[in-house]
Amino acid sequence: MNSGILIVISGFSGAGKGTLVNRLVTEYDNYALSISMTTRKPRVGEVNGKSYFFVTHEEFEHEIKQDGLLEYASYCDNYYGTPKFYVEEQLKAGKDVILEIEVQGALQIKEKYPDALLLFVTPPSAKVLKERLESRGTETKDVIDKRMRTACKEAEVMKRYDFIVVNDDLDKCVKDTHEMIRAAHYASNRSDDFIQFLKEDLLKLS
Ligand code: 5GP
User: Which residue's CA is the closest to the ligand 1 atom numbered 12?
Assistant: First the structure.
């Protein structure tokens, strides 16, 4: 009952995952956020060690060889991966650890950790998605087109996620996501220790 849940949050680029995850971490104290490693160049305002660990291709490949990553994937010509150490430490400490990762990595996590909770965040429509990508003002038209095409492919695996989170009203989205995670703590497959305790307790008294 007391160990943390590994939570994977994926969604289309521009769905508002980053904002959602930041709000969860700021507003509730049960979450720890994993910081990924990437070969992508920092965007304006991004800080090394906070937004991501920004590394070279060689450094990333070294990390793969050292078995230091829980999962990794190539996305839009760059590597992204989850460093293992922090996630394992925080789960043991009872924190719900959030990985904000794309779909290939999410499916790797589900294979390795079947009890992980997979959430997929989406805007209410493709039009809203495109508007959000354009209003960021950080990407070129080519990159936006590529991310829209990637979204079409990602939609194919939405069914593999446990819950779909529609990010229309952000406040509601934050609250709903927190409730989904809270409910997941009571799932029977995550209550092995409690069920075992109760079985033994019942035997003693019967
Ligand atoms: P961005 O370049 O916009 O920061 O991220 C691009 C995509 O990479 C997003 O969908 C983001 O969720 C995903 N991503 C970020 N970190 C990781 C990671 O550690 N592993 C995987 N598989 N995807 C990641």
Answer: 101
- Residue 173's region, left for phi above 0, alpha for psi from -120 to 50, else beta, is alpha
Non-local CB neighbours of 120 within 8 Å, separated by 6+ positions: 10, 11, 158, 161, 163, 164, 165
pTM for this prediction: 0.92
- Tell me how far the alpha carbon of residue 102 lies from the centroid of ligand 1, in angstroms: 5
Neighbouring residues of 31: CB distance < 8 A, sequence distance ≥ 6 = 7, 24, 25, 95, 96, 97, 98
Q: Is the CB of 100 under 6 A from ligand 1?
A: yes
63 CB within 6 A, ligand 1: no
Q: What phi and psi, each to the nearest 5 degrees, are found at residue 7?
A: -110, 125
Pocket test for ligand 1, best of 75, 76, 108 (most atoms within 8 A of CB): 75
* 11 within ligand 1 shell (Cβ under 6 A): no
pLDDT in tens, the chain (206 residues): 468 999 999 999 899 999 999 999 999 999 999 999 999 999 999 999 999 999 999 999 999 999 999 999 998 899 999 999 999 999 999 999 999 999 999 999 999 999 999 999 999 999 999 999 999 887 899 989 999 999 999 999 999 999 999 999 999 999 999 999 999 999 999 999 999 999 999 999 99
